[in-house]
Design brief:
The complex is a heterodimer. Chain A is α+β, with helices and mostly antiparallel strands. Chain A is built from 21 helices and 28 strands. The longest helix of chain A has 28 residues. The longest helix of chain B is centred in the C-terminal third of the chain and has 14 residues. The chains are: A alpha+beta, B alpha+beta.
């Protein structure tokens, strides 16, 4: 999270001309990905491999009375069966702090249930057999006796006094005095700035609205998959796709009770994650099955398993209250969020509280969040976790306020926009930020003033995400011919190899085509935090820049040796060593220095292990036009423009791609996507046919405006990019729909039946 | 039960495999023949990541049984490039940054190739509807559609 320590030293690179940064180069991993050669999680096989399958609970809430595995074990071809009892018990207070707090106790129980199941799809056992077919048959032979309990499916129900309690050991945290009784309310969070009561008393206009959203899934196209092998002396290899090979190593070792050095994780290409692959589900099961079977075990989830048992992000409600003076100056803001955590505590509600009002300079703010347990899968991170629902509440309420004031919604935002020095409600004073610039770009964009037809409406909304830094490592290895390998420990989830190569090229001053970026395994580079929080291009990029500088220093030393001059005599210019005082020494290229490496001290390389500070917040503003069919309630998105301050676009095409992809995920969230549970607590839409994500024919082109207000905390001005774009769309779409139908919509998704009920006044 | 012996032509070469009755063509391509370029995203024909050509028809390989491929001619993503010469669609997917994670890309390229064989000059709307059976969660489709339109123009010599 951005905090004041994060504000790094100011580097003046204004007016700097970049040689490689900002070029639209071909991504280094591209050819493999357009020819089918790239290996994703499920593409890996190993000799002697067998196949694992998970047995999942059909009940949303039940006690496990007995698990009988005898019949399964007797089936020919079955090599191992595991249940929760095969795993070590983990201390209830064992926690790790990352982008979201992780409880290892909960994680262990979520991966494989012990005494209770908490959601439809909760893993209760796993089996490994010689073929996938036998594994599936064996899974059906595992007999689980349940004592079925009443499921608690919504936060509203879970918060009622008479609701069944999921966990007997959880009492509400963050309230005084500390309650004694267990509760489904895991915690209350509050962020406060100034004196909200006095602020509202001073307001000329106060508006208050409540909004609701449903559980949605990250929807990555690649289901979770892994392959694990373990030697007789306990050394495990895990091949898998994830958002962090070091994360998989840490969690797998922890859950299986192994030392870190006993688990090696080899990253596959990742087929989308969006936060959903920042945790493990299959890997510890595969390791335990492999251990018991004495054979490598491959496990691949079906889509049904992905939807029932992984991801999703919290459904929730947002109540926003905003007070303003007649001229539009906002004097107070209040936000109350209730998020469904799923089966274990840890919805991103605190992040929602921190982000909702962050784009605005408001002196008096109160944000309260409730983390509520329900019998749904445990929420995982999803792109800017917590922020979209909070922004949906705030940005729609701002739209109502603009109407009440008779003010243009863009001007209202402009008047109250946070700028450098603004105190954010979550505690920091912003450094240089570019929110106002995104509003100016929106105002200047032809989209903002284009005419609209009947049944059409336009919405505008903004969004904020902290962006984070954190621990990253990089190694820059100069090959014998002067080409370069850049190794980092972060999976390439959407083009990061391209940006690493560009930053290394800039630092070394050599053509980007001569640089090969590598996503290394956990034993080939030092530790790096996972790919998340929009941190990789910023933090790992910073490590690459520093490692390149380290390599340049090494190259300069070698050149000094070759010339037999003092190192101070050597400068590095355009990818070659130049002797500053003597003209008799012709410049030495990186290839020329590399060719003589053995005579000057051996292999040439640079490295950097850093904890990157100075992450720059990201702000975005989106404009959306829709047309609503009043007969059916069907919404067509006619035009969409995503504007964002990205600091500096290292590879502009992939930056635009982040804006477009985030916007479309947000459009899906706003219009179509939702988990539908039956009365029995079973998920009813477990496939892509009825968990309806946007397809190409649903959408127009997504226009982008890339605003570049450099982040002073990064040598090239980089800010994180990937998460901010999913924050504004929920409100941008809802505001557009509200204007198209002339009524305020408050409940997502705006699917035809729901919208038709609003239109018809039902 | 004994496995079925299936004889096909894949990407121009004769290919035989043994499969069980319930194995899909996708399972056979991936697990029996090692052609892992076609991906499984849903196994229900909703995502298009396993798009292949079966006797000149665009199909989801997850909805075809391996035994149904007897005597058939199959084209997969692995056969789209000619040696090291990329197909114009592959070139434009790279130049136009039409992929992020890349897992849907093989399916999109196979489906888009089928579109351009069927209609060399599609409108944007036609391209969007033809590709509506292929899910991409990363790109928002914008750059995919642009890449397809640009490849179509190049292939027409425009």
């Amino acid at each position: 999270m951005g905090n004041e320590e994060d504000i790094g030293k100011i580097i003046d690179y204004s007016g700097r001309e970049f040689q490689y940064i900002g070029k639209r180069t071909i991504r280094p991993d591209g050819v493999d990905k357009v020819t089918g050669r790239a290996n994703f999680g499920a593409d890996f096989t190993v000799n002697g491999m067998i196949h694992g399958r998970v047995v999942r609970s059909p009940h949303a809430h039940a006690k496990i009375k007995k698990i009988n595995v005898d019949k399964a074990l007797k089936l020919d071809g079955v090599k191992a069966v595991i249940t929760g009892k095969d795993f070590p018990e983990i201390d209830i207070n064992d926690k790790a702090v990352g982008e979201v707090v992780v409880s290892y106790y909960d994680m262990a129980h979520n991966i494989i249930a012990r005494d209770k199941v908490y959601y439809d799809g909760h893993a209760v056992a796993a089996v490994a057999a010689t073929t996938p077919d036998i594994a599936e048959k064996a899974a059906k032979l595992i007999e689980v006796e349940y004592d079925v309990l009443k499921p608690v499916m919504t936060a509203a129900r879970a918060m009622k006094k008479n609701a069944p309690v999921l966990h007997k050991h959880i009492v509400t945290a963050g309230v005084e005095p500390k309650p004694e009784k267990p509760s489904n309310v895991a915690s209350r969070t509050e962020f406060k700035l100034g004196d909200p009561a006095a602020g509202f008393a001073d307001a000329d206009v106060i508006v208050e609205r409540e909004f609701s959203t449903q559980t949605v899934h990250q929807g990555y196209i690649e289901p979770h998959a892994c392959c694990a092998s373990i030697s007789a002396d306990g050394n495990a290899n895990v091949w898998c796709s994830s958002q962090g090979q070091f994360m998989v190593r840490a969690y797998t070792a922890k859950i299986c009770g192994m030392e870190t050095s006993k688990v090696k994780v080899i990253p596959a290409e990742i087929g989308g994650g969006f936060g959903g692959k920042t945790v493990v589900y299959l890997e510890p099961l595969a390791v335990m099955l492999a251990k018991k079977a004495g054979r490598p075990v491959k496990m691949v989830m079906t889509r049904d398993e992905v939807l029932r048992a992984t991801g999703p992000t919290s459904g929730g409600t947002a109540r926003a209250k905003i007070g303003a003076k007649k001229d539009g100056t906002i004097v107070a803001g209040e936000l109350e969020l209730v998020y469904e955590a799923g089966a274990y505590p840890g919805s991103p509600v605190a992040l929602g509280c921190m982000t909702g009002f962050a784009p605005y300079d408001i002196k008096n703010v109160s944000c309260v969040g409730w983390d509520v347990l329900v019998n749904r899968p445990k929420a995982a991170a999803y792109r800017a976790p917590g922020a979209p629902v909070a922004a949906f509440g705030v940005e729609c309420t701002l739209d109502v306020l603009a109407e009440e004031l008779g003010m243009c919604p863009l001007e209202l935002r402009m008047k109250n926009a946070a700028v450098e020095g603004t105190q954010a409600p979550y505690g920091v004073k912003f450094n240089r930020i570019g929110y106002k610039e995104t509003l100016e770009a929106a105002k200047a964009h032809p989209h903002w003033s284009a005419p609209l037809g009947p049944n059409q409406g336009r919405g505008i909304a903004s969004g904020f995400w902290f962006n984070i830094g954190g621990t990253s490592s990089a190694e820059v290895m100069v090959n014998e011919d002067g080409t370069v390998i850049v190794a980092t420990g972060n999976p390439d989830i959407g083009g990061s190899r391209a940006s690493m190569a560009l930053m290394a090229a800039e630092g070394l001053g050599i053509d980007v085509a001569r640089i090969k970026p590598l996503v290394a395994d956990t034993e080939s580079v030092p530790f790096s935090m996972l790919t998340g929080g929009s941190r990789v291009t910023f933090a790992t990029g910073k490590a690459v820049i520093e490692a390149a500088q380290d390599a340049v220093n090494d190259l300069k030393r070698r050149a000094a040796k070759i010339w037999d001059v003092d190192i101070e005599q050597v400068e590095w210019e355009n990818g070659q060593a130049v002797c500053i005082e003597s003209t008799q020494h012709k410049p030495l290229s990186i290839a020329a220095i590399a060719a003589k490496a053995d005579k000057t001290g051996g292999a040439i390389s640079g490295r950097a292990n850093i904890n990157a500070t100075g992450a720059g917040p990201g702000f975005g503003t989106h404009i959306c036009d829709v047309e609503v069919d009043p007969e059916t309630g069907y919404v067509t998105v006619l035009r969409y423009t995503a504007i964002q301050d990205v600091g500096k676009a290292i590879h502009p095409s992939y930056v635009e791609g982040q804006l477009q992809g985030g916007a479309v995920q947000g459009i899906g969230w706003a219009l179509n996507e939702e988990y539908v549970y039956g009365e029995d607590g079973r998920l009813q839409n477990t496939g892509f046919l009825d968990y309806r994500m946007p397809v190409a024919s649903d959408l127009p082109m997504i226009d982008t405006v890339v605003v570049e207000v450099p982040n002073p905390g990064h040598p090239y001005g980089v800010r994180g990019v990937g998460e901010t774009p999913i924050v504004p769309p929920l409100a941008a779409v809802a505001n557009a729909v509200s204007h198209a139908i002339g009524k305020r919509v408050t409940d997502l998704p705006l699917s035809p039946p729901r919208l038709l009920a609003v239109i018809d006044g039902k | 039960m004994a496995k079925h012996h299936v004889t096909t032509t894949i990407n121009g070469d004769p290919a035989e495999f043994l499969c069980e009755t319930q194995q899909t063509l996708l399972d056979c391509l991936r697990d029996e023949l090692g052609l892992t370029g076609s991906k499984e995203g849903c196994a229900s024909g909703d995502c298009g990541a396993c798009s292949v050509m079966l006797d000149g028809r665009l199909v989801c390989a997850c909805l075809v049984l391996g035994v149904e491929a007897e005597g058939a001619t199959i084209e997969t993503i692995e056969g789209v490039a000619q040696g090291d010469e990329l197909h114009p669609l592959q070139k434009h997917f790279l130049e136009d940054a039409a992929l992020q994670c890349g897992v849907c890309t093989p399916g999109f390229i196979v489906a888009a190739k089928a579109l351009l064989e069927h209609n060399p000059n599609p409108t944007e709307t036609e391209a969007r509807y033809w590709l509506a059976g292929n899910l991409c969660r990363c790109t928002g489709y914008d750059k995919i559609i642009k890449a397809v339109m640009n490849a179509a123009a190049e292939m027409r010599g425009a």
